[in-house]
Input
Amino acid sequence: MRWTRTSLFCLIFWFLGCELDLHNHTYGNPFDLDANSEEGIFPPALIFSPNQVNTEIGQVVPINIAALEVQGVGGIYAQVKYDSSLLSVISVKPGQFFSGDQSPFFLFEDQGGILDIYISYLSSETFANGTGDVATINFQINAEGNALIEITANSELMNPSDIPIKINGYGKGVIIAK
Output
């Protein structure tokens, strides 16, 4: 049997293809639905983007809270637990998720380890759908270590009539400071 160049390439790619398992690699994409499902996070969910950051002491790191595949959301209460011995909150700003003709109400309260963020449309006829950044938290890195951050189960999604929408996943993350 004589092998042609094409048949050799096909054979090589077939052998390589048998060894590849790309499904297990998320490449750090916090919006990857397959990777999130492996972590027990299913939409609708609140997650961090990015969910892992490597940095140095003294730096300010922006972390986004994102809504993942939500429908009919008129308001969000996100409670973020963070390691206050390693991090401090410098600022919190609204994201682009609630965009449109009407600006949403936005309020946050930092209690040194617990950050409460409230975002809501003031009209019962306005809502948002899909995936997008809800808020950006700027964390100051105060000490070396692995600072865990998590969105707690106290968080809520509400429809425009102030009726809760079930959340199926709460994001976790880590800020690694050296």
Notes: DSSP finds two helices and 13 strands in the chain.
